[in-house]
Amino acid sequence: MQIRISHHFPVAPRAYWEGTRGQDFDDKLAAASDIDVTVLERRRDGARTHDELRVSPKKELPALAQRALGSARFSYVQIVDSDDDTMTTTWKVLTDVIPDKVTCSGTSRVIPTADGGCERIIEGEIRVSVPLVGGTIEKIVLEQLEKSYERAAEFIRRHLQGA
To answer: pLDDT tens across 41-65, in order?
Structure first.
């Protein structure tokens, strides 16, 4: 299933990018997004950053997804490579449950908009190769992902406005 999530922010792309980097911001965003995040690895090489993060959403999955995945929560390791010069990231998710049957990866980029603001575009793909229920699980995960990114975008707008 394809992922495409887009949000507008009322600041220039560079202001967005610089305002959404750093451990302090990451901690505040995790709290606002109702997830636990642990940094497993962080490397910086010039304009490039490599992060490996353990992400554990606090909210439980719906019952159907719990039965199919054998877990109440969809915890995972997220590998993110960021480029400050191009304001892009590539990301990959390695799930704790049935990792051989779940693939999720994509990109994120920040681009200017005509009104002087910017747009964050997240694109990727999620595949759950579980007979009979894989497509349903993909839809459930995508719905939760969209809701999570919407909450995060609301937080980011307030954060960038100094609230």
So the answer is: 999 999 999 999 998 877 766 676 6
* CA 52 to centroid of chain Cα atoms: 13
C-alpha atoms less than 13 angstroms from C-alpha of 113 in its C-beta half-sphere: 16
How many whole angstroms separate alpha carbon 82 and alpha carbon 119? 17
Compute how many other C-beta atoms are within 10 angstroms of the C-beta atom of residue 104.
22
Cα gap 75→95, rounded to integer Å: 6
Specify the pLDDT at position 35: 82
Nearest Cα to Cα of residue 93 among 85, 102, 101: 102
Cα dihedral 131, 135, 141, 146, rounded to 10, equals 170
Closest CA to 30 of 51, 5, 53: 53
Give the chain's domains with CATH numbers: 2-160 (3.30.530.20)
Quickly tell me which residue has 């839809």 as its tokens. Answer: 139
pTM, full prediction: 0.84
The one-letter code for the residue type at 160 is L
Q: Rounded to an integer, what distance in angstroms lies between the CA atom of residue 97 and that of residue 144?
A: 17
Bridge partners, residue 37, by sequence? 55
Higher pLDDT, 18 or 70: 18
